[in-house]
Amino acid sequence: VCDDIFPDSAANVACQQLGYAFGTVAPPRAFPVAPLNQSIWLDGVDCIGVEQNVLACRLLRVGLPREGTA
Asked: Is 50 exceeded by the pLDDT of residue 70?
């Protein structure tokens, strides 16, 4: 979902949207880093925690190439 800013409140909203009771942020390096030519579909997701889905949260970028590409 995101390459840097993604607090537990956003993880909780995303996981609840998928039908889970709660969620938390994966620890750093839990997943491999995506290649620079791949898009980050939701970047800078900042939720309060009461939103019904992640698109209701504040987003810095949606569906754009990763920074450092163009």
From this structure: no
